[in-house]
Design goal:
The complex is a heterodimer of chains A (116) and B (114). With 116 residues, chain A is mainly β. Chain A is built from no helices and 12 strands. In chain A, a hairpin with a 5-residue loop joins strand 5 (33-38) and strand 6. Classes of the chains: A mainly beta (116), B mainly beta (114).
């Protein structure tokens, strides 16, 4: 089964420091991977995706993610964290559906807290 | 939250009552989805629809029903058969089966059943 795992429930980082939110995947075939962010009581916002090509993917709000096939990982990174980055982050993988179409399967989420 | 609206933002119902959550999109997307979010469990797929007048069960469809009579609308009914309906419900859409696959989400509806 196609799945992703987020091993950390919470990540704490000081403002100005680099941040990493981890995600590992388990898929058959080529993985299509995504990162989303959720602020309290809001919907999910798309940050970036990996379909093919460069292993370093750049996304919104200064975030980037590194696809590593040998480690089956897709970690989200930002060089300098902001307090406003504090939110819940979800990793997701595309899963083909029988009969056509696709769905996304999400990880359990990682709460990022950026402190002054 | 793009061009997807969900209403209401908060909804309170008594146990045993059916309730319908609204989802409308103006993105001209073919595919629409309903997810349920519970703390610590991520998002779980309830129903999805790839085209008008067609929809399929997701991973946790029991106690829910949907319709897709118009491309822009995909309402979700939480029936009295749903054993634990209190949750945050998210609607999403994507351009279709052969798209770049990312989904765009509405702001969500928080349903509380007592």
């Amino acid at each position: 089964a196609q799945s992703v795992a987020q091993p950390e429930d919470q990540v704490n980082v000081a403002e100005g420091n680099p941040l990493t939110v981890k995600c590992t995947y388990s898929v058959s075939g080529n993985p299509y991977l995504f990162w989303y962010v959720q602020y309290p009581n809001r919907g999910l916002q798309f940050l970036l995706k990996y379909i093919t090509g460069d292993n370093l993917v750049k996304g919104s709000y200064g975030f980037e993610a590194e696809f590593n096939k040998s480690q089956t990982s897709f970690h989200l990174k930002k060089p300098s964290a902001l307090v406003s980055d504090s939110a819940l982050y979800f990793c997701a993988v595309r899963v083909p559906l029988t009969g056509g179409g696709n769905k996304l399967t999400f990880g359990t989420g990682t709460q990022l807290k950026v402190e002054l | 939250d793009g061009g997807i609206t969900q209403s209401p933002k908060y909804l309170f119902r008594k146990e045993g009552q059916n309730v319908t959550l609204s989802c409308e999109q103006n993105l001209n997307h073919d595919a629409m989805y309903w997810y349920r979010q519970d703390p610590g469990q991520g998002l779980r797929l309830i129903y999805y629809s790839q085209i008008v007048n067609d929809f399929q069960k997701g991973d946790i469809a029991e106690g829910y029903s949907v319709s897709r009579e118009k491309k822009e609308s995909f309402p979700l009914t939480v029936t009295s058969a749903q054993k634990n309906p209190t949750a945050f419900y998210l609607c999403a859409s994507s351009t279709g089966p052969f798209s770049s696959y990312e989904q765009y989400f509405g702001p969500g509806t928080r349903l509380t059943v007592t």
